[in-house]
Design brief:
Elements (H helix, E strand, L loop, with lengths): L9 H21 L5 H14 L4 E11 L2 E13 L3 E6 L6 H14 L3 E6 L9 E5 L1
Parallel strand pairs: 3-4
Antiparallel strand pairs: 1-2, 2-3, 4-5
Helix pairs in contact: 1-2
Length: about 130
């Protein structure tokens, strides 16, 4: 894993910008109040239509005692193999949601995660950027 103080690669930043732009498009079209799974699949569609490579519900194993174990972790979206996106539709983002994204970043050896809560009036209030 690169030094945590090293700047993110430009491609990762460009991907993050694409994710945020796509999230704004989805939120503008659908508004708040739907299920997470709806926002997730619509965001996947929007990102693919913009030329991004998207993995949805990607399995994330845990390495313990030098053994790869399936622990049931699933990453909502991995975009262009570099940005993890965790989609929420909740009243308020809780510390456990941030911890979840940080755990996914550590286990996947990625550096940038976006926690996006679509259940807000203004989407900019629902986006949290997390970096390792």
């Amino acid at each position: 894993m690169p030094d945590r103080f090293e700047p993110l690669p430009r491609q990762t930043e460009d991907t993050a910008r694409s994710v945020v732009d796509a999230a704004f498009a989805v939120h503008k079209a659908l508004g708040p109040g739907l299920l997470e799974s709806t926002y997730e699949i619509c965001l996947e569609h929007e990102l693919r239509s913009r030329g991004c490579v998207v993995q949805r519900q990607a399995a994330l194993p845990v390495i313990y005692d030098a053994v790869k174990l399936e622990a049931g972790y699933r990453i909502d979206l991995i975009v262009d193999s570099s940005v993890i996106v965790e989609v929420k539709s909740v009243e308020t983002i809780a510390p456990v949601h941030e911890a979840q994204v940080l755990t996914y970043l550590r286990l996947s050896a990625r550096r940038l995660g976006l926690l996006i809560n679509f259940n807000v009036a203004l989407l900019k209030q629902g986006i949290k950027r997390l970096i390792l």
